[in-house]
């Protein structure tokens, strides 16, 4: 049989660098041939060979309802008939803003954009403009999109200003980006003690999904909030992944259960709010948001921002999430998956630990849950890659890198979960079941 995925990869490579339009799709970390998707429905997609996969990526988070949800499809089709893009305001943008503000009380005003990168980048500019300060704090292992100032890793000693992680980013562009270790309170305190008056904002993924799945501890988050308030820096939550994914109120609602009155100053959203269409947002306190053009001096704009088809898709998606019991059911299904995988690993004597929240999960071939990026990287990549490919052969599509989170949608059934767990048991038992 000819492998159409391979044929497509070879064709794509002639025209598109690496054959892909976003690097993680290339399977560079795990090796092998990326699957070219032909179509998707519910919890599954089919590749160019017609093989079906249970999809645990869901477009890296947006497809929380599964693929092709009827209500979303209908909203998108109806919106498309009325026009694709106008470059002028529409009522639907207000409706989406009202919906987001209702569900995330820390947001009083927001602006819609087209990607998480754009939203994160604009948040940094806004925080700098609003505070009149230059420095920003980010944490190693957190991803906030590919804007220059955020493509930075820790220097030789941590708590130094970092080094660019990409060619083409001049060192001067990251000289104001302080990179700290996630969940490290003493280092955070030291950074504020030294640089406090110069810090515009601290940006954090509260539940990090770009170093697999690592939560900020409650004491750590409490110190982030206290130190930002004390030093006049803005606390910016990057909930592009966790927003409307871990809970209806995002990760911020979970921290608010443990820290009375807890709120971030700014929130970055993306992924789920577009339901699979290019849509993202950033928002927060009115006084800060009013610094944006045309009211204020911080410039930010976009030809396709608030796109009418994308807002229809996002609105329909957010409506479905608010059905009673939605997150309880999603969380239970996700727990069933990770507990099943955990039991299968334990039975086979494979080191394994896992965590999940709502429809987002992580698993590690480690004995202990990591608290930061350095410990995530202790995973044996050869074991992970073997597991990834063996599952793929059995029709289960997990993220093709050990430092990515996974996603369960409302379309995943208990039968899908059981099929996944059975496949994992077979892989770890070394049993050879033909795919
Ligand atoms: C995906 C992601 C981004 C970037 O969003 P894009 O739409 O890919 O530009 C930013 N922050 C977090 C936490 C993300 O997961």
Number of domains: 2
Question: What ligands does this structure carry?
Answer: pyridoxal-5'-phosphate
Instruction: Please outline the major beta sheet.
Output: 7 strands, mixed
In oligomeric terms, what are we looking at?
single chain
Percent of residues in helical segments? 25-40%
Strand content: 15-25%
**Mean pLDDT, rounded to whole units?**
95
- As for the CATH topology of the largest domain, it is Aspartate Aminotransferase, domain 2
Low-pLDDT segments: none
Terminal CA distance:
14 Å
Q: What is the overall number of helices?
A: 13
What does this protein look like?
The protein is an alpha/beta fold and 435 residues long. It has two domains: 4-68 and 324-431, Aspartate Aminotransferase, domain 1 (Alpha-Beta Complex); 70-321, Type I PLP-dependent aspartate aminotransferase-like (Major domain) (Aspartate Aminotransferase, domain 2). It contains 13 helices and 18 strands. A seven-stranded mixed sheet has the order 4-14-13-12-9-5-8, with helices on both faces. Strands 1-2-3-17 form a four-stranded mixed sheet. A three-stranded antiparallel sheet has the order 15-16-18, with helices on one face. Strand 1 and strand 2 form a beta hairpin. The two termini are 14 Å apart. The mean pLDDT is 95. The structure holds pyridoxal-5'-phosphate. Pyridoxal-5'-phosphate (PLP) binds at residues 115-117, 120, 143-145, 205, 209-210, 238, 240-241, 270, 280.
Give a concise summary.
The protein is α/β, with parallel strands linked by helices. Helix content is 37%, strand content 16%.
């Amino acid at each position: 049989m000819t492998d159409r995925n391979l044929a497509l990869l070879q064709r794509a490579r002639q025209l598109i660098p690496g054959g892909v339009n976003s690097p993680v799709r290339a399977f560079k970390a795990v090796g092998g041939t990326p699957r070219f998707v032909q179509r998707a429905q519910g919890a599954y997609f089919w590749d160019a060979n017609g093989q079906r996969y249970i999809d645990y990526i869901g477009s890296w988070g947006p497809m929380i309802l599964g693929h092709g949800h009827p209500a979303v499809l209908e909203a998108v089709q109806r919106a498309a008939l009325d026009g694709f893009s106008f470059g002028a305001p529409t009522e639907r943008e207000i409706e989406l803003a009202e919906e987001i503000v209702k569900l995330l009380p820390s947001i009083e005003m927001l602006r819609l954009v087209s990607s998480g990168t754009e939203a994160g980048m604009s948040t940094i500019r806004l925080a700098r403009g609003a505070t009149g300060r230059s420095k920003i704090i980010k944490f190693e292992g957190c991803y906030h999109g590919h804007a220059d100032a955020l493509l930075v890793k820790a220097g030789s000693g941590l708590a130094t200003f970092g080094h660019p992680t990409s060619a083409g980013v001049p060192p001067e562009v990251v000289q104001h980006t302080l990179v700290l270790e996630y969940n490290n309170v003493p280092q955070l305190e030291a950074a504020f003690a030294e640089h406090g008056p110069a810090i515009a904002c601290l940006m954090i993924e509260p539940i990090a999904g770009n170093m697999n799945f690592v939560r900020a501890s409650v004491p750590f988050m409490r110190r982030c909030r206290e130190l930002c308030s004390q030093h006049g820096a803005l606390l910016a939550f990057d909930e592009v992944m966790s927003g409307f994914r871990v809970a209806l109120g995002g990760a911020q609602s979970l921290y608010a259960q443990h820290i009375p009155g807890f709120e971030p100053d700014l929130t970055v959203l993306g992924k789920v709010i577009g339901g699979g269409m290019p849509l993202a947002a950033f928002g927060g306190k009115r006084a800060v948001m009013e610094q944006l053009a045309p009211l204020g001096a911080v410039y930010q704009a976009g030809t396709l921002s608030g796109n009418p088809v994308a807002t229809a898709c996002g609105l329909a998606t957010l409506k479905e999430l608010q059905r009673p019991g939605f997150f309880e059911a999603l969380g239970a299904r996700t727990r069933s998956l990770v507990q099943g995988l955990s039991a299968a690993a334990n039975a086979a004597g494979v080191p394994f630990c896992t965590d999940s929240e709502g429809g987002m999960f992580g698993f590690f071939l480690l004995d202990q849950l990591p608290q930061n990026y350095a410990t995530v990287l202790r995973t044996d990549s050869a074991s992970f890659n073997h597991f990834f490919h063996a599952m793929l052969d059995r029709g289960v599509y997990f993220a093709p890198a050990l430092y990515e989170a996974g996603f369960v949608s409302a379309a995943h059934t208990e039968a899908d979960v059981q099929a996944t767990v059975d496949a994992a048991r077979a892989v770890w038992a070394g049993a050879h079941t033909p795919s």
